C-alpha cells in the first residue's frame, strides 16, 4: 500500500558565502592571540581581562547607594556648608526631573490609545466625503453619486471627441 508523500514546493534557499568584510567597509585586525596571552594560564588570562574591563569595581550607582544618607552639619558660613548646599540642591533638582519624567510617562500609559475618541466618518459615500473635504463650492458631476444621475450638457465641456469639424479660418 502506497502512502501519500506530500512535498511542499518552496523556492530553493539562497545559499551563498557571506560578503567579505572589506566589501561592506569594515576592516578587522588579525584574529590571533598575542604571544604574551598564550603564555598565561587560563586563570591569569581571566584576571588580566577582568582588570582591563574593571569588572571587579562597583558601578557609579552602586557607589552612590553605599554612601551614608546622613549629612553632617558643617559650621555656618563655611566653604563646606556652601558645597553641601550646592550638592543637596543638585540632587533635589535631579530627583525632581526624574519624578517629572516618570509622571509624564505614566500619564501617557494611563491615557492609552486615542483611537476610540476619533469621530468616525458621517457617511460611507466617498463622493460626499471628498466634497466635504474640498469645500462647499464643489458641484457633483459624478454619475455614480447621489447628485441626480447623468451629468447635464451644461456641466460638461466638449472634449476632442465631441468637437465638430470647424473649417479653418482664413486670414
UniProtKB/TrEMBL annotation:
It comes from the Eukaryota. Residues 72-83, 162-171 have a biased composition (Basic and acidic residues). Residues 56-83, 138-171 are annotated as: Disordered. This is Uncharacterized protein.
